[in-house]
Amino acid sequence: MTTQSGYVEDTDEGFDPHASIIRDPAQSSEGPGPDIMDAASLTGDSVVSATGDDLGKIEAIMLDVATGKIAYAVLSFGGFLGIGSKLFAVPWSALTLDAGPKRFVLDVSKERLEAAPGFDKDHWPTMADRTWAAQVHEYYDVQPYWDDPVSASSG
Questions:
Q1: Quick check: pTM over 0.85?
Q2: How far apart are CA 99 and CA 133, in angstroms?
Q3: Which of the 8 DSSP states describes residue 16?
Q4: Whose CB has fewer CB within 10 Å in the chain, the N or C terminal residue?
Q5: Segments in the chain below pLDDT 50
């Protein structure tokens, strides 16, 4: 599908446990990205809503070490100059990488994000707790990454 800005979006109908990519057709396919990228190069990227509202920035990308899958992006939102920001674990599959402007799109409003389950930098949740994780995935209306039928059938 081509977006209004001329970028090409990779989407599949049905379940997809991976982040979608909006590709910049003018961007060369040489080197890393946007399909395989250094996670550190994504830290600090901005996150916007589908309507373009600023939702914050990526603070960290959390890896499920046992499965080798990206579990969450940690998004910081609010506060002033990083003080008082709230952190949110956003399931990786809820994000779309917009490769042209090098940002992520999260299809939620600012109000919905403000009401999302969050935490502060000194009190992180137990991200390996599947009950907590299932609630986070449900909030963002995406299937948990550990329910990926492709990985389950090949592993």
A1: no
A2: 27
A3: -
A4: C
A5: 1-17, 151-155
